[in-house]
Amino acid sequence: MKKIQIEIFSDETYFYNKKYIGIGCLFVPTGNKLNLANRLISSRCLNKDNPDKWIAEQNNCKMFKDNKCKEKHHENNDCEIHFTKFRKGMSYSRREISYRWMEILLDKKRQRKENEKIYFNILYLDMEKLDESFFGEDKTNNNIYNRFYKTTLLGPLKYFFNNNYITIKEIFHDNSDDKKAHKYFPWHTPFKLNNEKKIRVEKEFITFIDSDHKKYKCWNPNYVNSHLIQFIDFILGSTTHAIFKESDDKEKEYLYEIYYPLISRLWNEANNPNSRYNYFKSQQVSIFPKEKVTYQPDIYGNKIRNEGEFHRDIKLIKPKYTNTNQILDNIN
Hints:
Elements: E1 3-15, E2 20-29, H1 30-42, H2 62-65, H3 71-77, H4 92-105, H5 108-111, E3 119-126, H6 141-160, E4 165-174, H7 177-181, H8 185-194, E5 199-201, E6 207-209, H9 221-244, H10 250-268, E7 283-288, E8 295-297, E9 303-305, H11 324-329
Parallel strand pairs: 1-4, 3-7, 4-5, 4-6
Antiparallel strand pairs: 1-2, 2-3, 8-9
Helix pairs in contact: 1-9, 4-10, 6-8, 9-10
């Protein structure tokens, strides 16, 4: 059996007045981490004349030294890529960089290469079909999140990586004060994963980092890590819009037009090993549970939860616009 080392980057979203919780996890083999991060970071430079792509410190950039880049352009391109900020009225920089990141996600040629695949799992929890009281006396969403966060990681670890020997070097999560303070969340999932055969977690606590890379110096490892947190936020947000359509924003619909060929196949043909998008055993999205979870007493009177089902029963709505070619022509 093979041995593989990975790092995990995760984020969350709440929507429809917290009716749903979305958990997104990006699984990055360490051998591909810098390659993926460099592609994301290099996308920030929108100067077509720059052969070196993005330089975090503008004073070290040849374009700036040659008066081919203005300070304000560099500052605008250094924006945090956050899906909630992708909307009408956003900056040109945020729009163009987001389109480039979507192209990285959809790059079929690279996805055919085993060492350059993009692995992610997204799970939506339907809170109206879950009983909070079964997950702890304080009846908080964080208890449910903690329980299903492990599920969002464990299933793909076995499914994506074919039961190989897996070393998880570190698990990252976007900054969250309530999850940092939760009595179980920071340690529970690493502890449980360490009890699984063929899985070893090197760091016993989840690492919380800020998704805004500007809060870290470019030589700080979390400068790179924060970009990967932004990337899973971007994938999670794009997927949430595709399935649940919370917004009629035209900019989001233009982005959805680009994403649709992948998400529609991933949603409707999840187990197709022959798709040219090569998402089989590397990307998945689902909702839990299909029906309201009920409980029944066992012979001792203990409350037992019936197992629920994962599903993809929501029908995707086709994009409203067909502006894809015009958009893609502007992406380099």
